[in-house]
């Protein structure tokens, strides 16, 4: 079958990425893919057994080391994997792609936005034989992104967000009064999953730092203690592993306030470092779209040189899951040497430390700890 000119978005690039498109263009890409499928079905020798998708495995990941900027990121090269209709293991995945594409087309026609959770329940009602879990829907959405080379947001899917922001930041959405994020209480202000809304929100700040906090409880403590009054900063948390909406919000802040250092406060364990690296470099699983939201994040704590602040009895043995994450991180091409040294120290000691271990010095100690690290420039 001859390649249609309008199908160029499927190939012809060494670097794979997902475009952010208006609804009309996203629908056009869906229509082109369906027309090509129909053309194949009508051919004398139908060849629809394979669906070529961008490979989203580590083996297809590449590293862009920042030269003109301080930002490095992970991206995917143009290498394909196949989902086969004739293979019992992948046949359902093949069909799921088309079902999700059909659903996205309807969402775009209706000019609506849905979360992946809402999409799951709709698909569960319409096609219970195909979809039985959120994981299957998430994977199928990423397959559609890999096939059409356009972002989830372009397909009418908005990110479910857990992210919160607090501190010296004012946010003004179109047609609304500004929100003072220092006056939202210890719960913070919820980050929107609507990309258009994030793009059109006016941000103003007199902060000198942006501080990423791994844990909601630590975020709550820092905001409740109004640490941002002593350290002029904005606190952001994704309550664990970062969702795409929080990553987009952080990136928008880094563009709006390029002079502000971004500092990460995470547990001293492989999972904490993995969370930091996702903000800093992006992720392989979402390599087609998340790479563009990579930020120059610095690691302020906890780190190996903080262990002298923590009682021995507060150190916890590494778990099997920690060892798996550590092995994955060490195999990464992008992990910088001083991060490798920290990871090696974790493995060597067989220990992990949580931020809460600093409470042995009192509940107010976190703010003093952060101030000391920042004044001394102890971040990497």
Please name the defining characteristics of this protein.
disordered N terminus, 18 strands, alpha/beta, Arc Repressor Mutant, subunit A, Dna Topoisomerase Vi A Subunit, Chain: A, domain 2, DNA binding
Word description of this protein:
Its main location: nucleus. Its EC number is 5.6.2.2. Residues 93-157 form the Spo11/DNA topoisomerase VI subunit A N-terminal domain. It is globular, with a radius of gyration of 23 Å. 37% of the residues lie in helices and 16% in strands. Strands 11-8-14-13-15-16 form a 6-stranded mixed beta sheet, sandwiched between helices. A 3-stranded antiparallel beta sheet has the order 1-4-3, with no helix packed on it. Strands 10-9-12 form a 3-stranded antiparallel beta sheet, with no helix packed on it. The chain has helices at 23-41, 91-109, 116-126, 134-148, 195-200, 216-224, 244-256, 270-281, 320-330, 337-349, 365-375, and strands at residues 15-16, 50-54, 61-64, 73-77, 80-84, 114-115, 157-158, 164-167, 170-172, 179-180, 189-190, 202-204, 209-213, 233-237, 262-265, 297-301, 316-317, 351-352. The model is unreliable at 1-13 and 73-80 (pLDDT under 50). It is α/β, with parallel strands linked by helices. The termini are far apart. The chain folds into 2 domains: 12-157, Arc Repressor Mutant, subunit A; 164-376, 3-Layer(aba) Sandwich (Dna Topoisomerase Vi A Subunit, Chain: A, domain 2). The longest helix is centred in the first third of the chain and has 19 residues, at 23-41.
């Amino acid at each position: 079958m001859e390649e249609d000119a309008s199908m160029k978005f499927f190939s012809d690039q060494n670097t794979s990425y997902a475009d952010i498109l208006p609804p009309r263009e996203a629908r056009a890409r869906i229509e082109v893919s369906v027309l090509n499928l129909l053309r194949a079905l009508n051919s004398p020798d139908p060849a629809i057994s394979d669906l070529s998708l961008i490979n989203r495995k580590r083996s297809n990941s590449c590293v862009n080391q920042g030269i003109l900027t301080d930002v490095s990121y992970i991206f995917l090269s143009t290498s394909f994997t196949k989902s086969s209709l004739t293979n019992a293991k992948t046949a359902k995945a093949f069909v799921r792609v088309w079902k999700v594409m059909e659903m996205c087309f309807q969402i775009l026609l209706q000019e609506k936005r849905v979360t992946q959770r809402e999409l799951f329940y709709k698909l569960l009602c319409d096609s219970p034989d195909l979809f039985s879990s959120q994981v299957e829907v998430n994977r199928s959405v990423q397959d559609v992104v890999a096939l059409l080379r356009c972002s989830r947001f372009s397909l009418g899917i908005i990110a479910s967000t857990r992210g919160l922001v607090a501190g010296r930041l004012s946010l003004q959405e179109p047609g609304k009064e500004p929100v003072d994020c220092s006056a939202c209480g210890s719960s913070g202000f919820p980050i929107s999953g609507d990309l258009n809304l994030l793009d059109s929100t006016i941000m103003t700040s007199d902060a000198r730092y942006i501080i990423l906090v791994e844990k909601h409880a630590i975020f709550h403590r820092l905001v409740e203690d109004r640490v941002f009054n002593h350290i002029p900063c904005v606190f952001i948390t994704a309550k664990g592993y970062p969702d795409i909406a929080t990553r987009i919000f952080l990136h928008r802040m880094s563009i709006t306030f390029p002079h502000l250092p971004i500092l990460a406060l995470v547990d001293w364990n492989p999972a904490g470092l993995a969370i930091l690296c996702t903000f800093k470099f992006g992720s392989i699983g979402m390599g087609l779209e998340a790479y563009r939201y990579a930020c120059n994040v610095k690691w302020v704590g906890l780190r190996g040189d903080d262990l002298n602040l923590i009682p021995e009895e507060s150190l916890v043995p590494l778990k099997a899951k920690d060892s798996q994450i550590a092995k994955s991180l060490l195999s990464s091409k992008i992990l910088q040497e001083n991060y490798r040294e920290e990871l090696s120290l974790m493995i060597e000691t067989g220990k992990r430390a949580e931020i809460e271990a600093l409470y042995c010095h009192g509940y107010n100690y976190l703010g003093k700890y952060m101030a000391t690290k920042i004044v001394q420039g102890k971040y990497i």
